[in-house]
Amino acid sequence: MIQRTIAQIEKMISIENDVSAIGSIEIQGVCIDTRKITKGNLFVPFKGEKTDGHQYVEAALQQGAAAALWQKDVPNPPLHLPVIVVEDTLVALQELARSYRNQLPKLQVIGITGSNGKTTTKDITANLLSLKYKVQKTEGNFNNHIGLPLTVLNLDEDTDIAILEMGMSSRGEIEFLTQLARPNAVMITNIGESHLLDLGSRAGIAEAKLEIISGIQADGLVVYNGDEPLLRERLLNYQGNVKTFGRNDMNDLYPENIIPSAEGNVFTVNGINQEFTLPVLGTHNVLNALAAMLVAHHYDVPFEKMNEGFASLKLTNMRMELINGRDGIKIINDAYNASPTSMKAAIELINNLEGYRQKILVLGDMLELGPDEVKFHQEVGAMVDPEEIDYVFTYGQLGLKIAEGARTVLRNEQVKAFIDKNELTKELIKCTKQDTLILIKASRGMKLEEIVTALQ
Q: Residues with Cβ < 8 Å from 150, sequence gap 6 or more?
């Protein structure tokens, strides 16, 4: 993590007050939450609409913070304490991260974006590169204009490779992140339907994701999903180092055979004479693995060693997480997020898994899909395979539209729609029996992990 004296920080960001008296104080790491303060931190308060973090500055210093930022337009700064007055605390945080990144010239940065699969791809890439390098990565979902600077400031100075997830909800956000992080390689997992509400079309989403290239360093590597024509056509004339992955044989790396199971996938790829074992559910995650393999190989990790990286893989929670439930049931917790693309991939996974007495889908609202949201939800319901799925439970107002679609392929009694999560849970427990497989998936705002907890 960043370790700098306040005198050094004065050369990294614009400061409004005289800090010469506290210039020798050294900060170790940055924190924005007083509940997580550790000794030596620089505390950064934000002035929000409902709460103002400046009211916690003195408490942060009492809890061990070495110093704190203070926004210029907030009255009564406690200048008797080690505070650094800045024009805007968020901008100062971002500028501090930018300066720190620029002071790590040997650091290689890999930026990852995409509509689905960013976090899984990040986790796989980190494991593969850790076979040879000291690697740090975005923790959790710290992938926005606050989270990414915090991740950069948490990097150790001897880290070889940082893997940074870059999220967005509107145009310009990824451009800002990538120009701060200055990646040496970038990955675009796919283009889905998330953020259609803000960006209007999949083409608009593609343009927003491609902003990641604007910050790439000279001779940087671009890895993208070559099955996506919106990406392929826009990168056709890109003058740089480009590699593609995908299902079809037009790509640089593609699967020749995939054998799915409840433990993950065994697969082979073109041009490499060995099997790979990926302990992650879903054949779509094989594509995420291919993206990671291309980047790892670029950094001289041999394909022959990659199974070692796969073997120790542990994904961030609530992403295709297989859990043992009560009374011998199995739960696939994929409740972190959802879009039509990822929802269809998850349902395809359930269809392909064998050895269960019954299979149940618990599906909730997919958010931020724009004017076609009803159609998207109905299409997801209609793609349920009546030969494989015994029940569909839906939750939420848009979940009612999933139920409508499901009733076109299932009997009415097989489809159960709920607005009340507790009622859904009670009915779901009644329907389960030993050797039942349950998929739970929805957008993050629906909090379907609460159902997972009730089933454990």
A: 30, 32, 93, 97, 142
Residues 277-326: pLDDT tens digits? 999 888 889 999 999 999 999 999 999 999 999 998 887 666 778 888 88
Same domain assignment for residues 83 and 211: no
What CA–CA distance (Å, rounded) separates 12 from 26? 14
Residues of the chain with pLDDT under 50: none
Q: Are 83 and 106 in contact (CB under 8 A)?
A: no
Residue 142: predicted pLDDT: 83
Contact 31, 1 (CB under 8 A): no
| Spatial separation of the C-alpha atoms in residues 121 and 366, rounded to whole Å | 21
Q: Is 385 left (phi over 0), alpha (psi -120 to 50) or beta?
A: beta
* pTM (two decimals): 0.82
Query: 3-state class of 319 per DSSP?
Result: coil
Which residues contact residue 6 at a Cβ distance below 8 angstroms, ignoring those fewer than 6 apart?
19, 22, 23, 24, 25, 26, 27, 67, 82, 84
In a domain, 97, yes or no: no
Instruction: Give residue 57's domain range.
Output: 3-92
